């Protein structure tokens, strides 16, 4: 267990160690120095793939648009790309697009120009080819919770990139169809950009299906077929605007390579865990302690300050059995691990009265402790007080509620504080059903110490001083 925690800390602090080409460990043993070499296994994930699909381009940010009043002019588009995953979150795509947009409705909100446009029968059709370089960000892997160990099959991807665009834009009116603009590729005005998002589903380790929506920025006012001349019929009706369009597609991604998994679907934290398990197995086979570990507590004898630790005891870094409450009883044998008590009582406290006489019922009449300079009854004392009420009412005797303090402060201050503590406890008992005729309260100040050696208070640990700040019951 210790070795696993150590390796995990090392992996998180220095992740490069997990993926180094070669890691050499040298350890001491009874034999000559042993060297363990952990060599990289090389790539274990497919990083190349191809993608292809088709869809519908729609122009809405142009002089001529595709949708108006429920009517849609539908074109077509297709794409093919060669993809390279550079990491589990980022990749590149070299993509070819081909398609045709169709548009025939004027993009204007002005009533006068709208009426003029209604009398102008114009339709646009643009055939385009594009080559672009796209960046691919796997948002699901980037934002994936590190504590999620489930195998996931859905992923959201973001895309953005630039390229060159070639097109032929046609316009059809009452005079027929004619070519309005032709833009050839690899010219300054052929640059364009596109960005969007896709939702992928892993059908298998080889094939993904993806729905994608891209926004294409042509940077061109003639792409819609309205003409590049500002005096053309279309441009006179509608304000000049860049002819951008949306392209919604559905396609497949096929992963290439000899490995069973793709890098873009890889969870790197699982890689860390697998490396930890591998290293732990190797370390378990190495003799870590030259001088051995006689008490088998996980601490080598060379550094063990307690060579006879009992079997099953928890130890600190020096091999000493833990004693959380510092009462001299190790946690293995301590029946009250967090509360100090004497060895003869198995590490649990014994409730002695001020005169050294054990009360008649230690459970019901045990002492109540207080915070420094406080007479407030702590919530953890209410079960003791409620048991005391039942005990007082069921017995014939009378009792004195005695208050005491530690040795800090003056004698007069502590006398008053002890009386307040005793009276608070008495009033609690009476208000919760105790017979008031059986109770009397008095304060003994700083002269009534459960641990007399704590004078001054600096000579004792705080738990002993708190035990002196108490209220206890004394039979009359």
UniProtKB/TrEMBL annotation:
UniProt KW Protein biosynthesis keyword: no
Keyword Transmembrane helix on entry: no
Signal sequence range: 1-20
GO biological process, one term: monoatomic ion transport
Protein's cellular compartments: Cell outer membrane
Species assigned in the record: Epilithonimonas zeae
OmpA-like domain sequence ranges: 357-476
Single annotated GO MF: porin activity
Protein's UniProt name: OmpA-OmpF porin, OOP family
Classification via Gene3D superfamilies: OmpA-like domain (3.30.1330.60)
CC annotations in GO: cell outer membrane; pore complex
UniProt entry keywords in alphabetical sequence: Cell outer membrane, Ion transport, Membrane, Porin, Signal, Transmembrane, Transmembrane beta strand, Transport
Membrane protein topology class: Multi-pass membrane protein
UniProt-listed PANTHER family: LIPOPROTEIN YIAD-RELATED, STATOR ELEMENT OF FLAGELLAR MOTOR COMPLEX
Top-rank lineage group of the source organism: Bacteria
InterPro entries assigned: Bact_OuterMem_StrucFunc, OMP/PagP_B-barrel, OMP_bac, OmpA-like, OmpA-like_sf, TSP_type-3_rpt
């Amino acid at each position: 267990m210790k070795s696993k925690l150590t390796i995990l800390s090392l992996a998180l602090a220095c992740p490069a160690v997990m993926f180094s080409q070669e890691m050499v460990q040298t350890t001491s043993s009874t034999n000559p120095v042993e060297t363990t070499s952990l060599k990289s296994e090389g790539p274990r994930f497919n990083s190349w793939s191809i993608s292809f699909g088709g869809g519908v381009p729609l122009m809405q940010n142009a002089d001529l648009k595709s949708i108006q009043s429920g009517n849609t002019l539908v074109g077509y588009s297709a794409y093919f790309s060669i993809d390279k995953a550079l990491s589990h979150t980022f990749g590149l795509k070299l993509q070819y697009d081909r398609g045709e947009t169709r548009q025939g409705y004027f993009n204007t909100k002005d009533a006068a120009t709208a009426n003029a446009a209604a009398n102008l029968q114009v339709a646009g059709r643009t055939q385009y080819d594009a080559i672009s370089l796209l960046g691919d960000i796997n948002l699901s892997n980037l934002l994936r919770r590190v504590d999620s160990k489930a195998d996931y099959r859905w992923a959201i991807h973001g895309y953005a990139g630039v390229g060159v665009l070639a097109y032929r834009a046609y316009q059809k009116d009452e005079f027929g169809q004619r070519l309005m603009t032709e833009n050839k590729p690899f010219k300054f005005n052929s640059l364009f950009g596109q960005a969007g998002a896709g939702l992928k589903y892993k059908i298998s380790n080889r094939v993904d299906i993806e729905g994608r929506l891209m926004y294409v920025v042509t940077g061109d006012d003639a792409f819609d077929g309205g003409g590049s001349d500002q005096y053309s019929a279309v441009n006179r009706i509608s304000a000049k605007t860049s002819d951008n369009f949306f392209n919604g597609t559905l396609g497949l991604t096929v992963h290439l390579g000899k490995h069973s998994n793709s890098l873009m679907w890889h969870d790197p934290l699982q890689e860390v865990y697998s490396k930890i398990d591998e290293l732990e197995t190797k370390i378990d086979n190495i003799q870590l302690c030259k001088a051995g570990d006689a008490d088998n507590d996980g601490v080598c004898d060379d550094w063990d300050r307690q060579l006879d630790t009992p079997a099953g005891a928890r130890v600190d870094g020096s091999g000493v059995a833990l004693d959380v409450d510092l009462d001299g009883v190790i946690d293995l044998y301590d029946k009250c691990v967090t509360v100090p008590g004497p060895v003869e009582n198995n590490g649990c406290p014994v409730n002695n009265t001020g005169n050294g006489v054990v009360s008649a019922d230690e459970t019901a009449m045990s002492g109540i402790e207080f915070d420094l300079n406080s007479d407030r009854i702590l919530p953890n004392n209410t079960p003791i007080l409620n048991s005391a009420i039942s005990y007082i009412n069921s017995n014939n005797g009378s009792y004195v509620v005695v208050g005491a303090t530690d040795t800090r402060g003056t004698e007069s201050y502590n006398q008053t504080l002890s009386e307040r503590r005793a009276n608070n406890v008495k009033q609690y008992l009476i208000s919760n059903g105790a017979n008031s005729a059986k109770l009397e309260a008095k304060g003994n100040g700083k002269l009534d110490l459960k641990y007399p050696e704590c004078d001054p208070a600096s000579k004792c640990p705080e738990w002993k001083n708190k035990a002196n700040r108490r209220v206890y019951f004394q039979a009359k």
